[in-house]
Design a protein that fits this description.
Elements (H helix, E strand, L loop, with lengths): L1 E2 L2 E2 L4 E3 L9 H9 L3 E5 L14 H20 L4 E5 L7 H10 L4 E4 L7 H5 L5 E6 L2 H15 L5 E5 L5 E2 L4 H6 L5 H19 L4 E5 L5 H9 L4 E4 L13 H9 L5 E5 L5 E5 L2 H7 L26 H9 L23 H8 L2
Parallel strand pairs: 3-11, 4-5, 5-6, 6-7, 7-8, 8-10, 10-11
Antiparallel strand pairs: 1-2, 9-13, 12-13
Helix pairs in contact: 1-2, 2-3, 5-7
Length: 349
C-alpha cells in the first residue's frame, strides 16, 4: 500500500499505547513485519533519571532515542509512527522533535490536532488525525487546507470499542448508543471525497476500535477502509514494552472486568477493573507528590481523585495494585501471549 509515497506491505497500524506500553521494541518489531509500528510519546521519558525534575527534556530525549532504536529494529521494513496526544503539554515541541528524529508518520488525537498540518508541512513525515465522526474529519480537513493548504496523508478512525480515552460521551458508551464503526467509516469517506477530488490526493483510512480478527479486517476493507488500527492485541506480545504483569492482566481479564471509567482529565476511558479502580470506587484518593503538568486539561492537587500519569506508569512497570490498565473492549478474548510475527501472520489478508 502506498501512503503519499511511503510503502506499507500490510494495512495494519499498531495503535499507540501509553504510558510506555508501545515504545521502540514493540513499534520496531511491528514495522519489521511490514506494518506501521507506533510509539506513544506521552511521558515517554518516565524511566529517564531526570524525569521528575525536568520531564520535558527527559521526554524529548527519550522520544528521539526510541524512534532511532525502533528504526534499527525494523531493519528498514514497514513504517515507524509516533502517537502524540493533543491534550499533552508541549504538543508542538513534541511534534517537531518526532519529525527531526525521522518519524515516518505522526498520528494525533485526544483532541482535535488543528495545527498539525502547519507543523508537519515541508517535512517528509506523514500525518494523520484520529477521529470518531465524519464531522470531525470534515472540520479537520477544512482547517488543514485553510492553515497549511494540505490534506492529511491518512485518517485513523477510533470507534467506541477502543481502549484508553474515548471520543464519545459517557452516556452513549454506557447506553451502547455510539455510532457503529462501519457507519463512521462511511461518513468519513463521504466527507473527504470532495477534498480528495479537489486536491487530487488519496487520503487513506484506517479503522480502529474493536478490530480483533482477520475477519474484522476483511469486513473493514470490504466496507472501504484501506486498513485497520489494532492496539490491545499487541499488548499480549513478547515484544510489547510493558512489564509481563501488564500482559498477564490482559490475558486474565474477563468481560465483566472491563469497565468505562471517568479519567481525571474529564474524558471517559476503558480500563480493567483492578485494585486501584476498586479503591477509587470506595472513595480513596491518590495524589502525586509532584506534578509534571503532563496533560493540559488535568486539574491539579486535591481537585483530582488520582494522578493518571503515575497510575499508568505503575501499570507499565507491573504494579497491579496501583496501576491503571487501559484496554479495548475485546481484551477478554485474548488468552495467551504470542510473538508479534505470529500475531501479524494470523491477521494479514
Amino acid at each position: 500500500m502506498d501512503i503519499s509515497g511511503k510503502e506499507l506491505k500490510h494495512g495494519i497500524i499498531q495503535g499507540g499505547m501509553g504510558v510506555g506500553v508501545s515504545l521502540s521494541n514493540l513499534a520496531g518489531s511491528v514495522a519489521k513485519e511490514g506494518c506501521m509500528g507506533v510509539i506513544s510519546s506521552v511521558n515517554i521519558g518516565f524511566n529517564e533519571p531526570d524525569f521528575l525534575t525536568d520531564p520535558f527534556e527527559a521526554n524529548i530525549r527519550a522520544l528521539k532515542e526510541h524512534i532511532k532504536r525502533a528504526k534499527e529494529i525494523s531493519e528498514g521494513n514497514g513504517l515507524i509512527g509516533v502517537n502524540i496526544m493533543v491534550a499533552v503539554s508541549h504538543y508542538e515541541e513534541t511534534v517537531k522533535a518526532a519529525i527531526a528524529a525521522g518519524a515516518d508518520a505522526i498520528i494525533s488525537g485526544a483532541g482535535l490536532p488543528l495545527n498539525l498540518a502547519e507543523l508537519v508541512k515541508g517535512s517528509k513525515t506523514l500525518f494523520a488525525p484520529i477521529v470518531s465522526s465524519g464531522r470531525a474529519a470534515m472540520l479537520l480537513c477544512r482547517t488543514f487546507i485553510k492553515k497549511a493548504g494540505i490534506l492529511p496523508d491518512f485518517i485513523v478512525i477510533e470507534g467506541h470499542q477502543a481502549g484508553g480515552h474515548l471520543g464519545f460521551s459517557a452516556d452513549d458508551l454506557e447506553g451502547d448508543t455510539c455510532q457503529p464503526n462501519l457507519q463512521i467509516l462511511q461518513d468519513v469517506k463521504e466527507v473527504i471525497r470532495p477534498f480528495e477530488e479537489q486536491f487530487k490526493k488519496k487520503i487513506r483510512i484506517f479503522l480502529g476500535g474493536g478490530i480483533f480478527s482477520k475477519q474484522d479486517i476483511e469486513l473493514a476493507v470490504e466496507a472501504g477502509a484501506d486498513g485497520v488500527q489494532i492496539g490491545t492485541r499487541f499488548i499480549a506480545t513478547n515484544e510489547c514494552d510493558a512489564d509481563d504483569v501488564f500482559k498477564q492482566v490482559i490475558v486474565e481479564a474477563k468481560e465483566k472486568d472491563i469497565r468505562i471509567i471517568k479519567s481525571p482529565v474529564g474524558m471517559p476511558a476503558r480500563a480493567i477493573y483492578t485494585p486501584l479502580l476498586q479503591r477509587l470506587e470506595a472513595g480513596e484518593k491518590f495524589f502525586a507528590k509532584t506534578c509534571n503538568s503532563c496533560l493540559k486539561a488535568c486539574p491539579k492537587g486535591d481537585k483530582i481523585p488520582y494522578c493518571i500519569s503515575r497510575a499508568l506508569i505503575s501499570a507499565v512497570k507491573g504494579n497491579k495494585e496501583e496501576g491503571l490498565f487501559f484496554c479495548g473492549e475485546n481484551a477478554s478474548r485474548i488468552d495467551r501471549i504470542v510473538p508479534v510475527k505470529e500475531l501479524i501472520e494470523e491477521l494479514v489478508l
